[in-house]
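Structure first, sequence second, as always.
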């Protein structure tokens, strides 16, 4: 396991997959490195690639709004992605790209030791919860693995495309707040 500085340096100069050829910035992650809760998206979009920070585009604005409902912001959680470099035209990150990158996220988990991990969207849930995860059926459900509680929410981009999913996501956020209370992580 690398320490934060070693990990960030290695990630910033990574050439382990072809996404390094088209990136402007590596999007390492942001937030509290002692957070109890981590949010994991799929990969940077255009704005994130330009800024080097996750969830700063339109989906990020919605994510901030969603988190504010349950008193979470970028200072009391940690936000990262399955892949740290932007897939061209915002396509899904391919499996070999995920394989090349997942070690960085695993190292982030090992350093942060979150109690709760929230997958944002299908790609993160497939990778972190189960290879046959069905987001439409299973979002908001909880599963515990190696002492960490995992759940998934619809990806904020999916909520921008289809606002009819928002009420379910509101319920999932309340369930997240309950889980944090249950674990004694919030009052
Ligand atoms: N979508 C993601 O999955 N991650 C980001 O950082 C931005 C958009």
């Amino acid at each position: 396991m690398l320490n934060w500085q070693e990990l960030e340096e290695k990630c910033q100069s990574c050439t382990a997959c072809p996404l390094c050829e088209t990136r402007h910035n590596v999007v390492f992650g942001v937030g509290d490195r002692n957070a109890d809760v981590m949010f994991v998206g799929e990969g940077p979009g255009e704005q994130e690639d330009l800024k080097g920070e996750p969830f700063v585009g339109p989906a990020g604005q919605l994510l901030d709004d969603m988190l504010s409902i349950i008193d979470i912001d970028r200072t009391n959680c940690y936000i990262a992605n399955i892949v740290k470099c932007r897939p061209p035209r915002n396509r899904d990150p391919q499996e070999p790209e995920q394989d090349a990158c997942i070690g960085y996220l695993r190292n982030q988990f090992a350093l942060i030791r979150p109690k709760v991990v929230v997958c944002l969207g299908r790609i993160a849930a497939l990778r972190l919860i189960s290879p046959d995860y069905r987001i439409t059926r299973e979002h908001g459900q909880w599963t515990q693995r190696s002492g960490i509680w995992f759940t998934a929410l619809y990806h904020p981009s999916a909520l921008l495309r289809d606002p009819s999913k928002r009420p379910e996501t509101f319920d999932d956020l309340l369930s997240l707040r309950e889980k944090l209370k249950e674990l004694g992580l919030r009052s």
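Margin note: The chain is about 40% helix and 15% strand.
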